[in-house]
Amino acid sequence: MRKPREEMIAETRAKLIAAGRCAFGTVGYAEASMDDFTAEAGLTRGALYHHFGDKKGLLQAVIQQIDAEMTARLHTISAGAPSRWEGFVEECVAYIEMALEPEIQRIMFRDGPAVLGDVSQWPTSNGCIAALSHSIEQLKDDGVMADIDTETAARLINGASSHAALWIAKSETPEETSKRAVRGFRTLLDGLRVKA
């Protein structure tokens, strides 16, 4: 029995994303050959063009997938924290530290900005700002965060964490840079905390 068309389309997209992710994560965007990863997925270059337009479109799809996975991991971290404030801080710190993971480092923080441009202009950026704004509102309502304009705080925290991750990804000594970035970021967030 033939599979429904929607299921076949979803499977083809998933195969291309998996093959693209493997190639982008190992050899990088510039070195990844469309013919290699379409062949690896058992598909044609035409399938890639049909579903994603081009290699750049496939990179965007891979980034969306990784971003969703990162978000799920971050939610798990914040949900397991002893307080909302600690969850917020640990979630932000974990995002920065993810820049040490080879696949995330290469795809999200090296090739992504090089190919797709400024991270703050990516489609996923608005979701990050909205999620941060929601958390900040809760922290302000709890009386643990200073009375600061919510959108301003969200954009500043988002910018600081994104740039810290980019700094780590491009560093000659990423482990050391990560330690410095996390230490500084914790101090920055602590400045927004209402002291008892």
From TrEMBL:
Keywords: DNA-binding. PANTHER family: HTH-TYPE TRANSCRIPTIONAL REGULATOR RUTR, HTH-TYPE TRANSCRIPTIONAL REGULATOR UIDR. Residues 10-70 form the HTH tetR-type domain. Pfam families: TetR_C_41, TetR_N. InterPro entries: Homeodomain-like_sf, HTH-type_TetR-like_transc_reg, HTH_TetR, Rv0078-like_C. Coiled coil: none annotated. This is TetR/AcrR family transcriptional regulator. It comes from Shinella lacus.
